[in-house]
Input
Amino acid sequence: MKINEDLLRSVLGQEIRGVSYQEVANAINEYAPHFDVVTPRRLAHFVAQLAHESGRFRWLKELWGPTPAQERYEGRADLGNVYEGDGLRFRGRGLIQVTGRANYEEFNSWLMEFYPKRFPDVVAYPDYVAQYPLAVLSAFWYWDTRKLNKYADRGDVKAVTRIINGGYNGLGEREDYTLKFEKAFQMYKLILKHERMEPKGMDPLIVKQVMPPGKLEAMDEPDPLPEVKVKPRVIAKDWVIRNEWYIQRILDFTPTVVRTGGLIALAAITGPTIQAINPSIPMEVSQVIATGMMFLVGLVPTAAVIITKIEKVTKELGELFIALSIALEDGKITSDELKQIAEEGKDVAQAVKEAISK
Output
């Protein structure tokens, strides 16, 4: 699924000055499928951690004092800061705050592998990490290389926080964001499935329903709707009921006057004509020939009408099947209801149309 600015706003509130939720959503939507961060739960964990780490997407670069902790960046071997000035040069950037020369080098190698020649060298130009889309891609790099999807699938906010933060700073807010985002994403996914579309925005009334006040509980993936199978005999019976008139006309379409008196009268006229053309043919034989010709002539329009009727019936049957499949998939009518309607001799096509229009 894809997220949008309304979903972010429903949990985080209005954007802080200088922040564009749509820019954040666009970058996440573009790259999330590359790393299988596409389920409501995985997206909820990912977005919640980024929202906390960046102060609701406000900080793309670590604020520099320097503080005593930041002064200790200089010369830290575990961060790979081996050259003078590396502490400031490779301070935290991006939505997940990539920090230290070693991490920038690792991220740069990963970028060159996944997206060769697409982005600049972030070791030579580290400030690019504080700009979109690298601000988001750096987060996906950390998320993917630390295999955080498996912890998200378990709903383990503490484990995800420990790997990202190195401890549990801000755990309460991270948990709150995660629960609310998962609730919002789950509801949004159901809305998209129902409407068979992906709207750009979200109705404010829906947002209000998605995010009721009070504490929210984690929400599991919704159970798939049971598959509804319609028994063919129900459809066949309904088709016969609805098209009984056509079937009867096909079986008994040629009028009696054409089959009997009409053909005899035409044969009586045509027989002498044939004999006049060829006097060697006896009158009786001429009349038999004329009768056969008239019978064939009578069959041509009859066959044409029958074919037309069959095409019409086939078209109606196809339209019925399409409408019926939509109604069944959307749960607007069940196979048991169809069976009951057919057994009662009611018009199933009309019942399906009424169900779809509800």
User: Anything to note?
Assistant: The chain has two domains: 5-210, 232-357.
